[in-house]
Amino acid sequence: MTTTAVAPLTTADAEALVTTAVEAAEKAGVTVSVTVLDAGGHLLAFRRDDRAVLISGETSTRKAYTALQLNSPTADLVDAVQPGGLFHTLPTALDRPLLFIAGGVPVRRDGRLIGAVGVGGGAPEQDHGFATAAVESLA
């Protein structure tokens, strides 16, 4: 059996993700916090702007963690946690609470999950757009 190695998310990649998300937010006139996690859930890069709402840093981290754990953009998971949804009981089953609000996006390389980025501070749809722009810029 042959396996193909996939390059991990590096600190340089993480910093580029933060920079791109922040630039996209600034163009929209929004102040955000950005968190980047590697595939193991370890913090690689973080930026919290003092002009952002204080909780935006925790929000961006939880969005990234949720996208990483469920390997899906958080915007796609909102319905899954509603009563009767696939993950209705999941948020209380884990040690770290998940956050099902748009703004968390997995980072993939060669089709494999290598990390996640989370953005908090704007409207959920804006945060999702900033995170998606960052991930797309890495490709």
From TrEMBL:
Q: Which InterPro entries match?
A: GlcG_carb_metab_protein (IPR052517), PduO/GlcC-like (IPR005624), PduO/GlcC-like_sf (IPR038084)
Q: Name the SUPFAM superfamilies on file.
A: GlcG-like
**One Pfam family recorded for the sequence:** HbpS-like
Q: Which Gene3D superfamilies match?
A: Haem-degrading domain (3.30.450.150)
Protein name in the entry: Heme-binding protein
Q: From which organism does this entry originate? A: Streptomyces variabilis
